[in-house]
Prior knowledge:
With about 425 residues, the protein is of the alpha/beta class. Helix content is about 40%, strand content about 15%. The strands form four sheets. Strands 4-10-9-8-7-5-6 form a seven-stranded mixed sheet, sandwiched between helices. A four-stranded antiparallel sheet has the order 11-12-15-14, with helices on one face. The radius of gyration is 22 Å and the shape is globular. About 50% of the residues are buried.
Amino acid sequence: MFEPDLMQQIRDRFCHVDHCPFQGARIFFENAGGSLTLKSVVEVNTELAGLPDNQGRDNPASRELARIIDAGRHDMRLFLGVADGPVFTGESGTELLFRLVRAAALGTPSGGNLVGSTLEHPATASAGKRWAAIAGKEYRAVKHDDASATVSAQDYAAAVDSDTRVATIIHTSPVTGMAVDVESIVRAIRARSPDCIVILDGIQHAAHGGLDVDAYDIDGYAVSAYKVFSRHNYGFAWVSPRLATLPHDHLDGMPADFWELGTRDTSAFACTSQVVEYFDWLGSHFTDATDRRARIVAAGAAIHAHERDLIALMIDGDGARRGLRDLPEVTLIGGPDNPAREGLVSIVVAGRPCAGVVGELNRRGVRTHVRKADYFSGNILEPLGLPTCIRVSLGHYNTAEEVLTFLREFESIIAAPRAAASGGA
Ligand SMILES: Cc1ncc(COP(=O)(O)O)c(C=O)c1O
């Protein structure tokens, strides 16, 4: 785990790290619902919100906005690890993924099929179903494995054939916390359909362990800003040169690979630059490299390692405190020994309604979340016969002490007489 001094420096850079303005002291284990926000993001956002100038004018303010946008675009490339193909912002991760899937479904030869998986969030699953039907393609959902709570290359291989024109993949599930082996899935797809347009939903993964999009051999990748230390109301995406130039909503007169529609929110680019600057700063503690991309990669590896240790503590406990695996009434979705897990555990407690446990944790100052078998999580929970689960999701700014506090409160809640933590499903 991070050394205490670095941990303090990290925590100092985020807003509301241990305190909720509406509740008071609290531990934040709801990172899959939205990460903490960097203070630098709030500062730059506030500065830019007051500027009246628009882009594309011959005045100093407008030129500064253009510079910020260019720098933001450059930083998005560094963060994602992409050389060619445009990067652009959109309203949300969902909106961006719908645009990518739509262009791929309509822009590839008609007929054939579009393959996704039951592990996916509706951002790609709904888009895939809708645009496959409109484009005259069969929609195929690869069934994920309930026991490991993830999806494999073999699972995709069974569904993909030479007529697969488009495939969608979720990088990490926000319900199970399991990442997929992107490279092996893409190899399995390309072995059967070399020209398939492959689109990844990177929204849950982006804050948890480094991106290397060029290495994935894919065509599209989308990230939500509020899931990776920035603010709500924008996301950013990359598309490969060949997906970039498929027909898409586009302003006449702009280059064929231009995807932006209307005046840019300069602050979205400035905020992203602050996120990338943060990765750069964090990475500088783990490598002597002067190259920014190398430092960003080092930050991703360090985040992954710190979160892996926090998760191990949560599951295994330490000498003094029992972990989740030691509590007989607790079941971990995906099992306790799952190497695919990234920064998140989803659990159920025999005989305890999840909402009651989450409510009681909240009263004790530990923020977690109930996932219900609704449109967002039913794909995972229904096959397991679960109406709900408790999601405990970490960020790299969380500490071992916070994990131990969670374990202490959780164990005392589930040991209490039933009525204390009941109510709701
Ligand atoms: C994997 C995944 N995809 C898509 C989304 C939707 O992102 P947004 O809220 O930016 O539309 C989420 C949000 O939780 C997610 O976790």
